[in-house]
């Protein structure tokens, strides 16, 4: 891939985190600020779009300013603004894109609007700058669970996706059902460490579907029916085992389908990203299974797994070098394929 | 002082450039309901028409509502970020204030005549804020209120509701009225035009949205004028309000939309 010296300001407001980052040459993170709204949305057991938008308007300038300050740089030193404009919550995206356009216009800096999912795949490049194309990418978060093939030129083809809930969504919903709190992913991860993951043999949805799609909605229903039939399962002493077994079912499917995709494409590298890639059991299992299969697995550090603007800056860098640039009439989109 | 103002609170997008209190240029969004697409082009157009570029602007303004939340947030995030990036002040303007001023200017001749005759004028700005509610602000233009004083009173302090605490105004309340309670609306508004020397001008988008109700309220009272033309804010008047606020030295705030009611998600708090 081509390279060039560029300092990039990344802005990300696709869901409930207001984030800004300064990234140098698509590799070096000078700063990455994330203002999380978890404490607010916890009360509702999930992200409330209207509240997220309200919070973004409040935070956007503060977060961008902090990113510049921490990077010890100023707006005059910024060569490019990269902003997420798809997919995500419309009201949230509008705030970040509005701010990016304003900076671009006020300071005469080129702007590029990028895809949030693609940015997640590129978070692996920030973590491992030496990584080359031609790998299987798994994005697994509260909004998405998809497998991609990333070729040598970093062109991306989707191989499969969830047909209903995303993995993180299933974690959130089950955590809420069991009264554990929000966000569900980290809570289930933590509580599962004390439990026996073989306590219950949950189904492994779409294991034999012959494609690379996922489905987690039925798994959720399985847990709910099981606990209704056997009320003792939700007793405090059983919760760790219950959560661990549920987590194991999700992790197994995610790992297995990723490995099958790699075999199918004849590749020996898998890169995972997204909020659920922070799940410790998923990381362990990927490392263990990929060692068995002789596949290298790339997992970004926790900070880069969650929504952040550094990955947006990184992707903006490569897209800009590839000759892309957005005009100031660019819109936002709630849904978008890669 | 060069001022750039943005209004995105309704289906229309307007941008204006003022030099002090006079409107220099004006542009309008052509892409209705797509404010995010049109906004930067409109800003560019207004600046070009005024023979300026963004570095010439000394003060920024945007209205904070009441209005469409999503639209308002687009204008606000652009205005506050432009101001931040250029290191200039920015003011958020309440739509009710901007419309009262707009009503004043579009009825200037009549108002001047009434004021000279020692009559009393009240402007009632009534906005349709959905869920069958009207949000209204009352602005008193008394004979002893010279125009300059009127301007001052609009920017008497920096809170989100500039009219509340203004001492010059005899009526200084902003109350949401439920429509099923239209008698209450009548009870509050009608006395404002009771007597030969009291004139009431009603503007905002509520009179058009609830035609029957307002017609009923006005009844045969010739002292009540419903100003249907002053229905949505104009960026030029937003600039004017910001100019007065700035002259008065009102403190700046982290701009946020003026949410007329607390947001409670369906299902409530868990």
pLDDT under 50 segments of chain B (min length 5)? 144-173
The ordered H/E elements of chain A are EEEHHEHEHEEEHHHHEHEHH
Radius of gyration of chain B: 18 Å
Q: Characterize the largest beta sheet of chain A: strand count, sense, and whether it forms a barrel.
A: 5 strands, mixed
Secondary-structure content class of chain B:
alpha/beta
Helix content of chain B: 25-40%
Reading the helices and strands of chain B in chain order gives: EEEHEHEHHEEHEHEHHEH
Q: What's the pLDDT, averaged over the residues of chain A?
A: 94
DSSP strand count of chain A: 10
Per DSSP E runs of 2 or more residues, the count of β-strands of chain B stands at: 10
Runs of chain A in which pLDDT lies below 50 for 5 or more consecutive residues are none
Number of helices of chain A: 11
Tally of helical segments of chain B: 9
Summarize the structure in words.
The complex is a heterodimer of chains A (338) and B (270). Chain A is globular and about 65 Å long. Helix content of chain A is 43%, strand content 17%. The mean pLDDT of chain A is 94. Chain A is α/β, with parallel strands linked by helices and 338 residues long. A five-stranded mixed β-sheet of chain A has the order 3-2-1-4-5, sandwiched between helices. A five-stranded mixed β-sheet of chain A has the order 8-7-6-9-10, sandwiched between helices. Chain B is 36% helix and 23% strand. Chain B contains nine helices and ten strands. Chain B has helices at 35-49, 69-86, 95-106, 108-116, 147-154, 182-189, 206-209, 211-218, 235-248; strands at 2-7, 14-19, 22-28, 59-65, 90-94, 120-128, 133-141, 174-178, 198-203, 224-226. In chain B, helix 3 packs across helix 9. At the A-B interface, helix 2 and helix 3 of A face helix 1 and helix 2 of B.
List the helices and strands and how they pair.
The complex is a heterodimer of chains A (338) and B (270).
Chain A: E1 7-12, E2 18-24, E3 28-35, H1 38-41, H2 49-70, E4 80-86, H3 90-107, E5 111-115, H4 116-127, E6 135-140, E7 145-150, E8 156-161, H5 167-177, H6 184-192, H7 217-229, H8 239-265, E9 269-273, H9 280-293, E10 296-298, H10 302-305, H11 310-321
Parallel strand pairs in A: 1-4, 4-5, 6-9, 9-10
Antiparallel strand pairs in A: 1-2, 2-3, 6-7, 7-8
Chain B: E1 2-7, E2 14-19, E3 22-28, H1 35-49, E4 59-65, H2 69-86, E5 90-94, H3 95-106, H4 108-116, E6 120-128, E7 133-141, H5 147-154, E8 174-178, H6 182-189, E9 198-203, H7 206-209, H8 211-218, E10 224-226, H9 235-248
Parallel strand pairs in B: 1-4, 4-5, 6-9, 9-10
Antiparallel strand pairs in B: 1-2, 2-3, 6-7, 7-8
Helix pairs in contact in B: 3-9
